[in-house]
Amino acid sequence: MAIASAILLAACEASGERPPQERIVKLLTAKKMEGRLAGTAGNEEAVQAIGEEFARIGLEKYSGDDYPVLFPYRSAERREIGLKVTMKDGSVKELVYGKHFRERVIRMDLDATAELKLGEDSIGSLTAGTAFVAASEEELDRAQKGSTRFILARTDMLKQYPARRNLNVPVVEINDDTYIFLKKKQEGIESISLRMKYEDKEEAKAASVIGKISGTSASGPDHHVLVLSAPLDSLGSDAGQIYEGASRAAAVSVLAGLAESLKALSEERPFYSDIVFCAFNGRENGLQGSQALVDSLYDSNVHLSAVSLDAVGVKGGKLNLLTDNTKNRFVTSLADVLKQDGFNADIRHNFDGDHASFGYYSLPAVSFGLEEPNSVRTVRDRAENLDYGELSRISGIILDFVQKQDEEAKLEHNHAELYPFGREKSMYEYQDVKQQLVQREMAKLAFKQYELFENKEQNIRELVSNPYQNMDKVEFQNRYPGYSLPQSVGRYSLRSVIAILDEKAFGAGNLDDLEPNRIYTSDKTVEKKDINELSLSYEGENGSVLFLSVLNGEGSSSMQNSDTIPSREVLKNGLEFTVYDRAGTAFSVLYPFNSGGKDYKASLVAYVMTDTGMSPKWELDDAETAALLKGIDWKGLT
After folding, report:
1. Neighbours of 553 (CB within 10 A)
2. What CATH number does domain 77-112+123-200 carry, 3.10.129.10, 3.40.1010.20, 3.40.50.800, 3.50.30.30?
3. What is the pLDDT of residues 367-418, one digit of tens each?
């Protein structure tokens, strides 16, 4: 199949009928596009151009009578920003935005003057009246845990990040020249001042460009949809510089090429699945385009999966697969195809990409992204730095993967027809489909609701309920006075609690007495004995979060069920616990304990706020972890 796909791609390009990838990249990175920021004239021109490309290919329109599909779009606008250094002799140096400095994350209002601090040794003395200059990411991580007023982070590439979140400590990136100036002149610096102000724009409309190839499953009950996507927008222009976003323009060029090739294949033999092609807009302001599409598709009860080309084709850049579910068969299958073709792509747990919009609904999705550090979101992300040979290789891989997935979808359907109980179907395939369908049903249910979920096509007949009772800490203590929850764990403070109940707590009775697919509401009073698991959310400094879950002795954490996550057993200060790692970074701890003669397991997962969102990271060493575990009142949690 790989050879056939490569021949088809080469033939299409050689014929001249399909515009080469270079033409689309050149079009999207042209000066007149002004960086394609959503809501600008340049972005609207890019939308029109890709719509014309989809029309030339002959894709069906996804919605209405045109390829652009509008959605509500929200954004922020910078009103003021400045950074100045006041010397002890009274002189003032105004730093130039875009040349000397840039805010790392947009939407952080501030007007502050502070004492300048440099050097690793000064981190312990930071206060609300100081500004720290971080020479490395390690120093930045440490400083963010303190109470400093703002941080200046040294970098060789000034990046701009989307207006997605607010951090407790504002971070401004400075270039090497600025860092050297501050370090050299620090003894003569009286203070440093930073002012930033932003305003929300009125809600407007933006458009993603969407086309499709209809498959044969669309007319039946087993409707499969595979979404192929790429981000159309970039960061626009700022401080006299244009953010071309060439790696994302390259992703759109690959998407258009795939549409051309798959359209030709579908005319020879129709696909079983619908294939939807999306040039998503609003990626840089909270994944708004992909969220709008998934929200519209989710209620239509289809088997939905997605592959997103986030940033690809940069010379020397290492390609990774980004996903919120690293064990999903859909993701690992794509990784296998990549390895067979010589790509050494790692699977990374990540929420920064259009795949996250699908992952929110527990749908299988993955993004192609570049290893950090990279030039994405900088002015260095330019067309001359692209490797078009690699883009062709990626096109061939995805082309093969799409055909493979389509054959599997058709095979699953045939097995369901031929074998009513799925005897010939792979257990992994069956469980993936079953889990997805059951989770969809669960998402429809309110607390204490349940139903006998029946899906004859997939041979599912199962009691589905919503056992998750989400409460703030005061409400929980009022409902369940038998608990004495720790109000703090280390430097984290308790914010909310989720009680996960035993299904028997709802009193569903005999399944044969229930009408299939009808929603029932239990009138049974829930008591402490009905709780199977507690999940507590604790909030720390700088947006950090700690999740503490307590399971009964028969329960198991997701890490325990994984055979791919590295772990190590620890014996420290009389305590035994297990530390789990991803990519060499500790992120979770499992601690077995006994309370009242019963065995329990506690799972602790820590997240820290980074420039690309929430990342799992356990920041304590083994001795500190043991001390934290000893300080928790485990009896109060049981």
Report:
1. 12
2. 3.50.30.30
3. 888 776 567 777 888 888 888 888 888 888 899 889 988 888 887 665 444 3
